[in-house]
Amino acid sequence: MFHELQATFAQALLAGGGAPLDALISDRIPAERRFAIHVNNVFGLLGAALESAFPVVCRLVGTPFFQMTAQAFVARHPPSVPHLAVYGAKFADFLDSFPPASGLPYLPSVARLEWARVEACFAADQTPLNPARLAEYPASLYPELVFRLHPSLRLVCSSWPVLLLWQAHQQEPVSPVDVTSGGEAVLVLRPDLEVTMTRLSPGDAALITAIANGNTLAAAAASAYDVEPEFDLQAALADHLERGRFCGWA
Amino acid sequence: MSLGTSPGRIPARAGIGLRTPHISQMTAAIPPPVAWVEVHIENYLAAGGPRLAALEQIRRDRPLSLHGVGLSMGSAAGVDSDHLDRVARLVDRFQPELVSEHLAWSVNGGVYFNDLLPIPYTEETLALVCRTVDQVQTRLKRQILMENPSTYLRFAASTIPEPLFLAELVARTGCGLLLDVNNIQVSAVNHDFDPFDYLANIPKLTVQEIHLAGHAVLDVEGERLLVDDHGAPVAPEVWQLYAAAIDRLGPVPTLIEWDTRIPPLETLLDEARRADVWLARTEVGAKKTEGDRHVP
After folding, report:
1. pLDDT band for position B282 (50/70/90)?
2. Does A185 lie in the same domain as A218?
3. Co-location of A140 and A86 in the same domain
4. Inter-chain residue contact A3 with B48, CB threshold 8 Å
5. How many domains does chain A have?
6. Can you give the residue range of the structural domain that contains A238?
7. B136 — pLDDT class (breaks 50, 70, 90)
8. I want to staple A193 with a disulfide (CB 3.0 to 4.6 A). Which of A53, A79, A137, B50 is the partner?
9. Do A125 and B48 touch (CB under 8 A)?
10. How far is A203 from chain B (nearest CA, A)?
């Protein structure tokens, strides 16, 4: 009995109304009005959770538009686990196919970057690989190494200047951004306590993508040269090691 | 080097609900004097990161209470065992002095609603919540506290008054109570009952923690409805009810909670000091009474 009542209550919450009035008491305040408190709580608090995960998206569209978008997202993709720090994984994809936001084609990319920051922030902690360990390894075997990336590492590749947009919205007033200035590949990492972001060259982005997919260094380097013939592998590896982007190798 | 605090008891002092905007002040070289802190379990379920690191540091120097908002103790389908495992891992890691949850539900059909939703109070739901409390206490290998909810709705099917439902829950499962005094006030106004009567029906010695928070006042076509938004100072009527509560229950660890429009930490500390004054008064009163008893 209670089982059915709870399911009906839950469906009405997501639908934003249609409370099981037979089961509820109306007195000086009708039960629908009382039920509305819970509808407001659910959509308001989940909207606030999304706003704190996607502050730049919110600034780009303004709070009223963001809240309207968030409500539509919550109704379509409510959280499935009680862990709001990881709520919003599908928000960027949702924006891709949300007609009211189609006027800002770079919005989903900015959302992807913000989500990468959230994931990096809450990823497992791990000590980066000490470059000295690699130096002890025979250089002739480097091509066959499969590096393990740091658990917090994320790569966001966009045809828009996504990091420029993000940075421009960290200050008030927002500095103007030429959105036609070209795409960016942004590496997001939290080697210690702070989330960092770095632009990668196309070759470097291809290298990291290939490593993330479990390729050997030789194969990853080949895909880097494919997109960037001038790619400097040695400099890129030194940089990745120094910034703690690798945790080990297999 | 700090010797740290071994898990023991939370002192009968005022603590604060630790929220993200205040973390950096609490991890500073000289943190403000806070007797104990409570955090929401569901904000600390990540694999790693700065928030967990900060909690490790803050916890080292003071007692900790872990407060769940996602176990959905009132779910007809029972507790989600994956989520219970996540909670158990956090409890294992931090060894908190107290663990608490709510007499409410928040999960149904694979959706987490992020709100504390009401249940009817019947023999059926009492048996259900008792089973769930048993399951959680068994899994966590410890007693938990159950918090009285703030409610906006009443169910036609309810047959058991809320304080009796809670008392029965305690009697059948051995759990303790977390008495949210603001929730009593919110529900009392929303359902036209006397909050002091409610208080009188809460069994003594079962309350191990008190919550204090602010609420919002809504006007629904001329009718007053209180909303438990934790976004305002503790209301004067709630302070009065609090005084009556500790007068009845004795000095109990008391938490100041803010969750919306979170003010500077100093505001929470002010409210905590105010609660401490009441607690100190009660303690003196309690000792006096105890002393009196020994006088032949």
Report:
1. confident
2. yes
3. no
4. no
5. 2
6. 126-250
7. very high
8. B50
9. yes
10. 30
From A104, A139, A168, the end of a domain falls on A104
Residue B185: name the closest of B147, B126, B241 by CA.
B241
Residue B169: pLDDT over 80: yes
Has residue A113 been placed in a domain?
A: no
- Would you say residue B294 has pLDDT above 50? no
pLDDT in tens, B187-200: 999 999 999 999 99
Closest CA in chain A for residue B128: A2
Where chain A has pLDDT below 70, the residues are: none
- Checking if the pLDDT of B210 tops 50, the result is yes
Q: Are residues A130 and A249 in the same domain?
A: yes
- Are A164 and A82 in the same domain? no
Residues of B in contact with A118 (CB under 8 A): none
Query: What is the ipTM for the molecules in this complex?
Result: 0.93
Give yes or no: residues A66 and A132 share one domain. Answer: no
> In terms of Cα–Cα distance, which of B215, B174, B223, B169 is closest to B195?
B215
Task: State the amino acid at position A68 in one-letter form.
Answer: M
Name the domain boundary from A104, A135, A167: A104
Q: Show Cβ contacts of residue B36 under 8 Å, excluding neighbours closer than 6 positions.
A: B10, B11, B13, B15, B62, B63, B64, B65, B97, B253
Kindly provide the b/e burial profile for residues A32-63, where b requires at least 16 CB atoms within 10 angstroms of the residue's own CB: ebbbbbbbebbbbbbbbbbbebbbbbbbbbee
Do both A99 and A217 map to the same domain?
A: no
The answer as to whether A110 is a domain residue is: no
> Binning pLDDT at 50, 70 and 90, where does residue B290 land?
low
The contacts of residue B145 (CB under 8 Å, 6+ apart) are: B98, B99, B100, B101, B175, B176, B177, B178, B208, B209
pTM higher than the cut 0.90 = yes
> B255 with B203: CB under 8 angstroms?
no
Residue A177 lies in a domain: yes
Q: Are residues A239 and A148 in the same domain?
A: yes
**Closest residue of chain B to A48, computed from CA coordinates:** B260
Cβ A29–B220 below 8 Å, yes or no?
A: yes
Whether B48 and A122 lie within 8 Å, measured CB to CB: yes
Tokens of B259: 């969750």
Same domain, A133 and A80: no
Contact A82 B83 (CB under 8 A): yes
Q: What is the pLDDT of residues B37-47, one digit of tens each?
A: 999 999 999 99
Share of residues in chain B with pLDDT > 90 (%): 91
- Judge whether A49 lies within some domain: yes
